[in-house]
Design a protein that fits this description.
With about 250 residues, the chain is α/β, with parallel strands linked by helices. It is about 40% helix and about 25% strand. Helix 6 (about 145-155) packs parallel to helix 7 (about 175-190). The radius of gyration is 18 Å and the shape is globular. The relative contact order is 0.17.
Length: about 250
């Protein structure tokens, strides 16, 4: 059974002459436990698909199903217990005046949990941060540590799906592998389903089992990662991406 199913998805911004069609007729399925990649150049519509799923892109048509439930125009609390998103820039996604404890505690409270102190400690342990980070503020953390906090916040509601929007592109190269390995371990430990947006084919090759290649708002090809590694893309644009990539 598909944990996430997207059918004939169109996303647009503006109206009339100002309308911009950001995503056109996107269709893909992600089985439970899979890590699925969306790749393409900047502006190809990758992140817009994630925003449509989470309700951050309000003008869309088509069909989105999460764990068998069809999504309407609004997302309820049950949706956010099932689906969470990790954004590209961890500093921008964390409130600068809220400590790590406040960030995680508030999230746990919103999800209805009672044993908040114990859960905060467990979340920090799960993402490789000890208790000494609990009362620090975002400006006291490195980029990698901030992203670990952002991942912990996403995990607080015990979701089944994580949407990962370029989760390592704002980090130093030396830290990127640590975060990717953390995400790999968490997916195995928690039986999570991932949809990962990236412009880096090497990252997608490391993290994902299948991927969709996007160009100008459309999915031009869906392939498994072995075809990516073997450079067996069939669409000319996918072939061009592979030629221009390094280490993919």
């Amino acid at each position: 059974m598909s944990m996430l199913s997207v059918s004939d998805l169109n996303v647009w911004f503006g109206t009339g002459r100002d309308r911009v069609d950001a995503v056109r007729d996107a269709t893909f399925d992600v089985p439970a436990g899979e890590s699925f990649g969306l790749v393409g150049e900047s502006g190809s519509g990758k992140s817009t698909i994630l925003r449509a799923i989470t309700g951050l892109a309000p003008t869309w048509s088509g069909r989105i199903e999460v764990n068998g439930m069809t999504l309407g125009p609004r997302r309820d609390r049950a949706f956010y217990k099932t689906v969470q998103m990790v954004f590209q820039d961890p500093y921008a996604s964390l409130h600068p005046r809220h400590s790590v404890d406040a960030v995680l505690g508030e999230t746990l409270h919103l999800h209805g949990f009672k044993d908040i102190d114990a859960r905060v400690v467990k979340l920090l342990d799960d993402v490789g941060l000890g208790g000494q980070f609990r009362f620090r503020y975002p400006h006291q953390l490195s980029g990698g540590q901030r992203q670990r906090v952002a991942i912990a916040r996403a995990l607080a509601g015990e979701p089944e799906i994580l949407l990962l929007d370029e989760p390592t592109s704002a980090l130093d190269v030396s830290v990127q592998a640590e975060i990717l390995n953390l995400l790999t371990d968490l997916r195995a430990e928690r039986s999570l389903t991932y949809v990962m947006v990236s412009h880096d084919l090497a990252v997608v090759g490391h993290m994902c089992g299948r991927l969709a290649v996007m160009k100008d708002g459309r999915i031009v090809e869906i392939m498994d990662v072995q075809a990516l590694r073997d450079r067996q893309a069939t669409h000319p644009y996918s072939q061009e991406l592979l030629r221009n990539s390094i280490g993919a």
